[in-house]
Design brief:
Blueprint (H helix, E strand, L loop, with lengths): L5 E5 L2 H13 L4 E2 L8 H11 L9 H4 L9 H14 L3 H5 L10 H13 L9 H12 L4 H5 L3 H22 L5 H13 L19 E5 L8 E6 L29 H16 L2 E7 L4 E2 L2 E2 L39 E3 H9 L1 H9 L10 H21 L6 H15 L7 H21 L3 E2 L4 E5 L2 E5 L3 E5 L2 E7 L12 H13 L4 E8 L4 E5 L4 H16 L30
Parallel strand pairs: 1-3, 1-4, 2-3, 4-5, 8-11, 13-14
Antiparallel strand pairs: 6-7, 9-12, 10-11, 12-13, 14-15
Helix pairs in contact: 7-9, 12-13, 12-18, 14-15, 14-16, 15-16, 17-18
The structure holds iron/sulfur cluster.
The site of iron/sulfur cluster has 13 residues, from helix 13.
Length: 567
């Protein structure tokens, strides 16, 4: 049966994403865009748009390594560093690669070629003009794709077409800012609002590839053959999640009861079944990731369909392993860099080894947090020097910090400023009224034979108790006390203040509350930091895109070269 006559339908994009990643490795042609903004060709184009629009030209790291330019990561980093020293936009630096030391011959030629192709781009060039100019006039990115009849390449063209539509809409509302387009895409991803960009357009109907859709998206369609995978508990019916917007207490009937949820899921199951014209295959695995799964209860209603069980090792080729990066061993690490590694080793590599930091070009909310932290640190320093700070003085200092580094002119500036005022005023009162004396200096502890250094926001000695605190400018979270840093802070404080009572916790200026975290997490902390040190020194930097709220705020989000299936 031709691929185009078959469809894979699943309850969620998450399931489809996992399945399609495996099928792609088996070279099965698929018609599925998945998350548009996470596709490799779209990341190429967004990295191009990001040149000089975001984070000091970081996009060059990805664009420079496109086959048409053949430059290395090292070449791109040399150009970025040179542009920073010369205070030039990266695109202008590309026009002067002859002056940049340390480039490979191929890299120099490739980057000069890229510079020539982007010569038409200026600060006011819109994403639409930049992409269409480069794709259709000056660059060669599309050449191989338009000549190819491979369904995967044709799918790439469709994805590019979708991205151009997004840029066209951005232009149509009179916004030509490349930075704002990228901010919008980050926001879409952060809020998980990308489903509208996943639909395949009508232009793709002739491609001989398996159609891949959510069951919701398949309503009203029919296919000669339908595969319904993942018919297992937790997948079908999907687990019932609490509503983010519960109904008002006086309208309890508007909340969805479990029985309604199950009925809706069952309807969805039958929608899936009824999309098949001639062939229907219903499947499930006995184990998903590491968890065993039992059959979906909805399968009882179709128990007359003959079932077979196949037990076979996976025939999916293993993901490509990246060669380890050679890393120099160090005698000491800061706890904050190890925390970055624990969060995402790839981010650690980008930041610590490649020097690709976000700098001051962050999102408005990051600027707001930075202003609050700086002002609180200033109050803390004054207190350590024996100078008391009133709330009015603290707010006056915040004014100065805000003018220099705050989200001035941002649409939500008023909201951020109000929150910052409240936090700074709370912090000033808290620091002024606290008993005890501030203690200078940092803390350190030996882990895996290395010194791990820490700079707690607050180190205060009062009545035989040493208080070690971090200032958290975000909201309180349940798991804060489980973070390895608190166990490490306790160990380090015990080392520096032997025999004293140590209190480890966090202060939250947003509500003026302090939380103390109990002892007992030290072993876990040592294990986590030890794992990070060993991973760094073994040169292992896998991407960890686990937290969908974290990646879209990462400065490396668009340049991210390592796909999900590479370890
Ligand atoms: S985008 Fe996500 S996975 Fe990639 S480096 Fe940043 S945090 Fe890690």
């Amino acid at each position: 049966m031709p691929y185009r006559d078959q469809a894979i339908l699943a309850r969620s994009h998450l399931t489809l994403g996992r399945l399609t990643a495996l099928l792609e490795r088996l070279n099965v042609p698929l018609l599925y865009l998945g998350d548009l903004f996470e596709r490799s060709e779209i990341r190429d184009l967004l990295s191009l748009v990001a040149l000089d629009a975001e984070f000091g030209g970081l996009g060059l790291v990805r664009v420079a390594q496109l086959p048409a330019y053949g430059a290395t990561e090292k070449d791109s980093l040399a150009v970025i560093a040179w542009a920073a020293v010369e205070k030039l936009p990266v695109i202008q630096a590309l026009a002067r690669v002859a002056e940049i030391d340390g480039l490979s011959d191929t890299g120099r030629d490739g980057l000069a070629k890229l510079g020539a192709e982007l010569a038409f781009v200026g600060p006011g060039t819109s994403p639409w003009s930049m992409l269409t100019g480069w794709l259709f006039e000056t660059g060669s990115y599309l050449n191989a794709l338009v000549r190819s009849s491979d369904p995967a390449d044709r799918q790439k063209l469709i994805a590019i077409y979708h991205l151009l539509k997004v840029c066209g809409e951005h232009d149509a509302v009179g916004d030509g800012s490349r930075k704002r387009l990228l901010e919008r895409i980050r926001r879409i991803e952060l809020l998980n609002q990308d489903s509208v960009y996943r639909a395949i357009s009508a232009e793709a109907t002739d491609i001989d590839a398996v159609r891949v859709l959510t069951i919701h998206g398949s309503k009203g369609l029919e296919f000669p053959a339908v595969h319904l995978p993942a018919l297992a508990t937790r997948y079908m019916p999907a687990s019932r999640k609490g509503s983010r917007t519960p109904a008002l207490a006086k309208y309890p009937q508007l909340n969805m009861a479990k029985v309604d949820h199950d009925a809706e899921e069952e309807c969805l199951f039958f929608v899936g079944l009824s999309r098949a014209r001639d062939h229907l295959s219903l499947t499930r695995a006995v184990k998903y990731t590491t968890q065993n799964a039992t059959a979906s209860k909805f399968l009882d209603s179709v128990s007359s369909i003959p079932a077979t069980t196949r037990t076979a090792p996976s025939s999916v080729p293993l993901p490509i392993a990246r060669p380890p990066v050679v890393v120099e061993r160090r005698a000491s690490y800061s706890a904050s860099e190890l925390e970055t590694y624990i969060r995402c080793p790839a981010k650690y590599r980008y930041e610590q080894l490649m020097g690709l930091r976000g700098g001051a070009d962050g999102a408005a909310f990051l600027d707001f947090h930075r202003c609050v932290r700086r002002t609180l640190a200033w109050i803390q320093d004054r207190r350590a020097a024996g100078v008391a700070t009133s709330a009015a003085e603290a707010l006056a200092h915040l004014d100065e910090v805000w003018a220099e580094r705050g989200p001035v002119g941002h649409g939500f500036e008023g909201y951020y400023r109000q929150a910052a005022n409240r936090m700074v005023a709370n912090g000033a009162v808290f620091i002024a009224t606290e008993q005890g004396a501030s203690v200078d200096g940092g803390l350190d502890v030996t882990i895996a034979g290395r010194t791990v250094t820490m700079e707690p926001d607050r180190l205060v000695e009062a009545g035989g108790v040493v208080r070690v605190q971090r200032i958290r400018t975000g909201r309180q979270t349940k798991g804060e006390g489980d973070k390895p840093i608190y166990g490490a802070l306790r160990l380090a404080a015990q080392k520096r203040f032997p025999g004293r009572t140590i209190s480890v916790g966090a202060y939250y200026p947003s509500d003026g509350e302090t939380r103390e975290f109990p002892a007992g997490k030290e072993d876990k902390a040592i294990k986590a930091f030890e794992g990070a040190i060993n991973g760094i020194e073994a040169g292992q930097f896998p991407a960890k895109p686990d937290d969908p709220r974290f990646c879209p705020n990462c400065q490396c989000y668009f340049i991210w070269i390592v796909p999900h299936n590479v370890v």
